[in-house]
Design brief:
It contains seven helices and four strands; from the N terminus they run H-E-E-H-H-H-H-H-E-H-E. Keywords: Signal.
Length: 169
């Protein structure tokens, strides 16, 4: 009986390791991130998304990484709404992106984490929509020629005048 005790303890410890391996988490930048740390650190009110994000953060803080809570339809919808608000605000402010704020990677990772616990999310709950004021990667917010050009440089080919003529304005 005493010889059986080490095997029994080893079995129990291996089960404990398996249970902790199945804790709800999302991979962000190669790191496992638990629910309470999914939303961006710092003040979300700075991004004007307090209304959409504070209840989500409260749920994340109290859910203890419980997938049954975190993958409920109402929680997923609130999370998507928060991330969408963050994304829209980043686009509106023309701010640099954050790996956690308004990120399709985080939203997709959240859906994948729910999938590990047999909660399948609808396709519209696995990605963000394009921001309403998105003007594309070549919009004027990204490049303003008046601010970036100090002068005009015109070069006229030599064949037009017989000599090379340059004008710097």
């Amino acid at each position: 009986m005493i010889a059986f005790l080490p095997f029994a303890l080893a079995f129990l410890f291996s089960l404990a390791g398996r249970v902790s391996a199945f804790t709800f988490n999302v991979t962000i930048g190669g790191n496992q991130t638990f629910a309470k740390d999914i939303l961006p650190p710092g003040d979300i009110s700075a991004l004007n998304c307090t209304t959409q994000c504070s209840s989500v953060q409260n749920t994340f803080n109290t859910a203890n990484d419980d997938a049954a809570t975190l993958c409920r339809d109402d929680i997923v919808d609130a999370f998507i709404g928060c991330e969408q608000c963050l994304f829209n605000q980043i686009v509106a402010d023309n701010s640099p992106p954050s790996p956690q704020a308004g990120s399709n990677v985080v939203v997709g990772g959240y859906a994948a984490a729910c999938g590990l616990f047999n909660f399948t999310l609808a396709v519209n709950r696995t990605k963000l929509a394009i921001a309403p004021n998105w003007d594309g990667p070549f919009g004027q917010k990204h490049f303003d020629p008046i601010k970036h050009v100090n002068g005009i440089h015109v070069t006229v080919p030599q064949s037009w005048f017989g000599t090379d003529t340059s004008f710097d304005g």
